[in-house]
Amino acid sequence: MTVQPGSRSPGSASSGALPPVVERYLKRAVSDRDRVPQLVRVIQQGRMRTKPGGRWMRFHAAEDIQIRSVAFSWRARFTGALSMLTVADEYAAGTGRLRVRLLGVVPVVSASGPATARAQAQRYLSELFWAPHALVANPDLGWRELGEHAVEVTTVVAGSPVGVRIDFDDAGDISTVSTPTRARLVAGTAVDTAWAGRVADFATIGGIRVPTRAEVGWELPDGPFVYWQGTVSDVALHYT
């Protein structure tokens, strides 16, 4: 079964078009489906590195994930012995942008353009487990069943579809998200690379059931490269 983006009206509480495995997941994740928030704010802590074998950097972050549109904003502060980095990673209205600054002032990394937009839209799709209301309330999502325990969720960026695969475990929880083609910056150039994320330790926080531990990485020729590991300490639903 395939459901195209835009097949439901904005903010709809009806979930009849969802694949069965997604509908079952939604019932466990959201207890009150009549009251839909505007966004979910997720507070995270963790560590990140920029290359295989590289030094891990600790971070604290806040991420706002929109419910009725494909949009998010992730703002993090990294600290280390000799430096302090701030990161703004965001997507909205078809535009994606990544900015890294030293001491909040000096530019270190800046990325935008079509490849970044597609990658950022895929990030939104891969993090729907932290904004489960969006599974049904976001009209810009399309669904395709890949089997009893897997689906593809898609959206449209600049007239072309992008998507990620979501796999569910035997208990009905999301276990992995993945895509064979996501843009990775290599010496300033976007290179399509296989990517995957894994989540665990589900708990009810802020009234919704979400995973509290996650890690993501690239599938490189030399083997998996996990570059981000994090935990969730708080989740808040914002209605205005």
What brief labels describe this structure?
240 residues; mainly beta; 14-stranded antiparallel beta sheet; globular
Walk me through the structure.
The chain has 240 residues and is mostly beta strands. The protein contains three helices and 14 strands. It has helices at 20-29, 114-126, 134-137, and strands spanning 2-3, 39-48, 57-66, 72-79, 84-92, 95-102, 106-111, 142-147, 150-157, 160-168, 174-186, 189-205, 208-220, 223-238. A 14-stranded antiparallel β-sheet has the order 1-8-9-10-11-12-13-14-2-3-4-5-6-7. Strand 3 and strand 4 form a beta hairpin. The model is unreliable at 7-16 (pLDDT under 50).
SSE layout:
Elements: E1 2-3, H1 20-29, E2 39-48, E3 57-66, E4 72-79, E5 84-92, E6 95-102, E7 106-111, H2 114-126, H3 134-137, E8 142-147, E9 150-157, E10 160-168, E11 174-186, E12 189-205, E13 208-220, E14 223-238
Antiparallel strand pairs: 1-8, 2-3, 2-14, 3-4, 4-5, 5-6, 6-7, 8-9, 9-10, 10-11, 11-12, 12-13, 13-14
In short:
With 240 residues, the chain is mainly beta. The chain contains 3 helices and 14 strands.
Give the helix level as a range of percent. Answer: 10-25%
Largest sheet: 14 strands, antiparallel
In one word, what is the shape?
globular
Q: Can you give the mean pLDDT?
A: 91
Poorly predicted runs of 5 or more residues: 7-16
How many helices?
3
- Strand % is over 45%
Which structural class fits the helix and strand makeup?
mainly beta
List the strand order in the largest sheet. 1-8-9-10-11-12-13-14-2-3-4-5-6-7
User: What is the tally of beta strands?
Assistant: 14
Distance between the termini: 34 Å
The SSE order reads: EHEEEEEEHHEEEEEEE
Q: What would you report as the Rg, rounded to the nearest angstrom?
A: 17 Å
